[in-house]
Specification:
about 230 residues; about 40% strand; six-stranded mixed beta sheet; 3 helices; eight-stranded mixed beta sheet
Length: about 230
C-alpha cells in the first residue's frame, strides 16, 4: 500500500480531498474517491479533486464525486484549486486559468499577507438549451412540470433546468427544511428526464433578497453548499 499526500479543503462547507499531481499520478482515482469519501470510516469528503499540469491553461482540475463518478465542473472545488496552486507555489499568478471537463475557467485570486484569502471564478454564461444541459427536451426546460415518486406518493414539481458546467434542476418550494432528501434526492438525480443524472436545488424564498437552499448533488448526496448550484 502506497502513501499518498493530500490536502483537505472546503469552500463554504463543500469539501474535497485535493491531490497534487504535478509530479505524481494517481492510479484508479474513481476507486480512490469511493474509499476516501465516507465520513465515518475514511477521511470524509464530497469527493476527490486531482490537480494536474496543463498544456492549455495554468493547471488542470480532475474531479470525482463521492461515488467515484467523474464530474465536469465544481464551483467551490475550482476556487480551492486556485488557492492550492498559488499557496503551494505551483502557479504564482493572481489571475490564472484552470482547465476542466467543462472548458477553461478564469480565476481571480484575492491575497492577504501573501496567501489567498478568497477566489472569484468566471464560470461563463448559464446554459439553458435542453440538449446541452442535458435533459430529455430539445427546448428550454424552464418552469416545466416533472412527475417524481416522492416519499408521500407521486408529486408534480415545477422545475427549471440549467447548466453551469454540469446539469442542475432548480425547484422552488414553500418550505425546504422538512424535505426527506435522502429519499427524494436520488429520485430527482436518476429521473429519466436527466440522461446524465442531475444536481437538484430545493429553494425557499425567505425574503426578496434571501433564499434558503438545500442541494442534492449527483454522486455525493446532500452537501452543505454547491458552487455551480
Amino acid at each position: 500500500m502506497a502513501r499518498l499526500a493530500f490536502t483537505k479543503m472546503h469552500g463554504i462547507g463543500n469539501d474535497y480531498v485535493y491531490v497534487d499531481c504535478f509530479e505524481h499520478s494517481v492510479i484508479d482515482p474513481s476507486s480512490l474517491a469511493r474509499r476516501i469519501s465516507p465520513r465515518r470510516t475514511a477521511i470524509g469528503s464530497d469527493g476527490l479533486i486531482l490537480i494536474h499540469p496543463s498544456s492549455a491553461a495554468d493547471c488542470r482540475m480532475e474531479m470525482y464525486n463521492a461515488d467515484g463518478s467523474r464530474g465536469e465542473m465544481c464551483g467551490n472545488g475550482i476556487r480551492c484549486v486556485g488557492k492550492f496552486v498559488y499557496d503551494h507555489g505551483r502557479v504564482r499568478k493572481e489571475r490564472l486559468s484552470v482547465e476542466t471537463d467543462a472548458g477553461i475557467k478564469q480565476l481571480e485570486l484575492h491575497l492577504e499577507h501573501g496567501k489567498v484569502a478568497s477566489v472569484t471564478v468566471d464560470m461563463g454564461e448559464p446554459i439553458l438549451e435542453g440538449a446541452r444541459i442535458p435533459v430529455a427536451s430539445s427546448g428550454r426546460a424552464v418552469n416545466v412540470p416533472l412527475s417524481v415518486e416522492a416519499p408521500e406518493g407521486t408529486r408534480t414539481f415545477d422545475v427549471t433546468c440549467v447548466s453551469m458546467g454540469n446539469p442542475h434542476c432548480v425547484v422552488f418550494l414553500p418550505e425546504v427544511d422538512g424535505l426527506d432528501l435522502e429519499k427524494l434526492g436520488p429520485r430527482f438525480e436518476r429521473h429519466p428526464f436527466f440522461p446524465k443524472r442531475v444536481n437538484t436545488e430545493f429553494i425557499q424564498v425567505l425574503q426578496p433578497d434571501l433564499l434558503r437552499m438545500r442541494v442534492w448533488e449527483r454522486g455525493s448526496g446532500e452537501t452543505a453548499a454547491c458552487g455551480t448550484g
